[in-house]
Amino acid sequence: MNSVESFRYLQREVTEWRRYLHENPELDYRLQNTARFVTDKLGSFGINHIETGIAETGIVALIHGKGGMGSTIGLRADMDALPIIEASNKSWSSRIPGHMHACGHDGHTAMLLGAAKYLAATRNFRGSVALIFQPAEEVELPSGALRMVQEGIMDRFNISRVFGMHIQPGLEVGKFGICHGPIMGSQDDFDIVIKGKGGHAAEPHQGIDPVVIAAQIILGLQTLVSRRTDPLESLVISVTKLNAAQAYNIIPGQVEISGTVRTLSSGLQDFAEREILAGAQGIARAFGADVDFKYLRSVPATFNHPEETNLAVTAARNLVGSASVNESVRISMGAEDFAYMLEARSGAYILLGNGPTANCHNPAFDFNDDALPYGIGYWANLVETVLAV
Fold first, then answer.
1. Residue 60's domain spans which residues?
2. pLDDT computed for residue 140 by the predictor
3. If pLDDT is split at 50, 70 and 90, which confidence band does 352 have?
4. Domain boundary pick from 297, 316, 332
5. Quick one: pLDDT at residue 15?
6. Same domain, 175 and 308
7. Does residue 175 share a domain with residue 195?
8. Taking CA 87 as the corner, what is the angle to CA 85 and CA 88, rounded to the nearest 5 degrees?
């Protein structure tokens, strides 16, 4: 198994790819330039089996090992950027106003390309590797991972296991974090429309004020976490949007509340969907109003499978040593659509240190290019571990 020093020769070239992608971010499924760049690089490595147009701009490329027949494992990188105005002040900052690689997907794509170049040259494994370049991780439904799964990539490419990786600000460069079981939460989103009776703000007794009702509902929702949920279980309910009147002297006819629910348990998803509606209806009707309610299950929890997690830990340890691999990393309640691939096949998701940088989704964020050899080396070691000759 290789240490990280075996992959440093790729850093300069892969840094150029990463910065090109950072300068040219594209959103959701509209990744025509990014997909063309990835496809051209894969072809230049001598990879002949490249399929494009999956989930619009997704790509799957196969590298066959030289060790005879074996299984196929999938390695996934997301490619899309975010609708953010960049404030990193780097010389390679985004050239596209309002578009930015603020979540490291430029680095994810570049690292998988670097691993592809290494694996295509060495082929020191038995079986095949499916390189999955995914669009639209940052969208709601249908996300890119869900669409690629629905379009049959697991069966079409005979993928038996699937692995993902994400950069982690705050974790030292050269270190990895992973855990068994859930590593990231599910994401559900809800909308509540409170239907009251509008009127003049000077005569509130003539109407049914949905603003006051909205305030009661927002406060009431917090008791679902603090008083209705086992404190040893994880549930987050956050109201994030509130839309009411646009003038000082108007009581609106309706108010819109929107928010998100995060948990690690499908049972708590059921509980939240049922009780948010019941609580909102009860409060609204007590004031003589009513509600319309929508609840969208956007992304399931990201769940690491036991055997594949052990394989990921082994690959990372062989690269950087046991002391640099935390296999009991703190669970995040953020969501990740790679969860859909982990529902379709067993696999594992690992975090790679980005150093003391701004957080993801922050306008000042930038991928740390010193992390590139570690991501490339992890992918290479993982393939040679799972598909050992």
1. 4-184+301-386
2. 77
3. very high
4. 297
5. 98
6. yes
7. no
8. 130
| Same domain assignment for residues 214 and 166 | no
Who contacts 257 (Cβ-Cβ below 8 Å, separation ≥6)? Answer: 191, 192, 193, 194, 214, 217, 218, 239, 241, 242
Tally of CA atoms within 13 A in the half-sphere of 4 that contains its CB: 18
Phi and psi angles of residue 366, each rounded to the nearest 5 degrees, phi first: -150, 145
Can you list the positions of beta strands (E) in 198-340? 199-200, 235-243, 250-251, 254-263, 290-299, 302-304, 325-326
Give me the helix-helix angle, 105-122 and 11-23, nearest 10°: 140
Same domain, 247 and 353: no
CA distance readout (Å), 386 to 5, 125, 165, 188? 21, 9, 16, 34
Q: How confident is the model at residue 70 (pLDDT cuts 50, 70, 90)?
A: confident
Look up residue 149 and give its two tokens.
């799964």
Structure tokens at 311: 């394989």
End of a domain among 259, 280, 297?
297
| pLDDT score recorded for residue 354 | 98
